[in-house]
């Protein structure tokens, strides 16, 4: 906590000022700003409700999506996907665009399993993503050094820093310039995507990074990015670079 | 069947207090929220949780529409004799689920 709550007017003005990217040693997970009770909930696998999705995901991973098609587990050995969530979004050769982990799971379904893509924010896709990302828990976020991702990353950074919506807030105006302070009663975190999909108490359920971004954008009175849009993936790419090397916490719990 | 997580020791010395933690997957729809069409979504909650230790009731909770989704209940009991703990959740729309966990008392 760096100071008292800001007045709305001050925050609005400050939001327009150019913000500096958070230097490496000062990067903090949103976990550090949570109440001890919420931290305890995340730390205990028997109390963390996100584990319900992880266990569902383990079942889905082992089961054939359609009769006769291979299950995920037929190609990927148990534990072989450790580290994957720490480096996604990544470049997909065939699609010639960056895809996030959810997108990669759906590509696997259509390419190798003869199955329809799962709907975004549906329980099954969240469960599979949580199961895979959970295997990377504790590993530092390590975005790939792939130059093909650079243009999207630059777009993501521009989106992060550009004032958006009717309130003319930018992501950076809060999460770079004023993290550790409060917006109303709510602490402003640095906004790192290191625990997704995560269980948000406000949602009473598990949700993806894209859902969280739509939440923030709606709060800024900006038009939310469409699910699986290039903007959402570009911003996710930049956020992952901005969060490195924080450890993956999936499934995190957040207020 | 809803997924439930039950955490308790497998073995315990006689006379010791053991902690039991339960978590079950359930939306706990209050009945007061409108859906996308503007109509109230019908109530769908777990109304009761009971724990039996070798047939004897040791813990009971009544849940209300104000309870959070995926209710988490934790309580303690005295380990008296080896046996089975049966956890039962029941609620709206005929929801009923039981799970047994064995406890060895040494």
Automatic annotation (TrEMBL), chain A:
Its EC number is 2.8.5.2. Gene3D superfamilies: Cytochrome c-like domain (1.10.760.10). Binds 2 heme groups per subunit. Its cofactor is heme. It comes from the Bacteria. GO terms for molecular function: electron transfer activity; heme binding; metal ion binding; oxidoreductase activity, acting on a sulfur group of donors, cytochrome as acceptor; transferase activity. The keyword Transmembrane helix does not apply. Heme c 1 binds at residues 72, 75-76, 108. The keyword Cell inner membrane does not apply. This is SoxAX cytochrome complex subunit A. It comes from Methylobacterium dankookense. The gene is soxA_1.
From TrEMBL, chain B:
InterPro entries: Ig-like_fold, Ig_E-set, SoxZ_dom. Gene3D superfamilies: Immunoglobulins. SUPFAM superfamilies: E set domains. Residues 9-101 form the Sulphur oxidation protein SoxZ domain. This is Sulphur oxidation protein SoxZ domain-containing protein. It comes from Methylobacterium symbioticum.
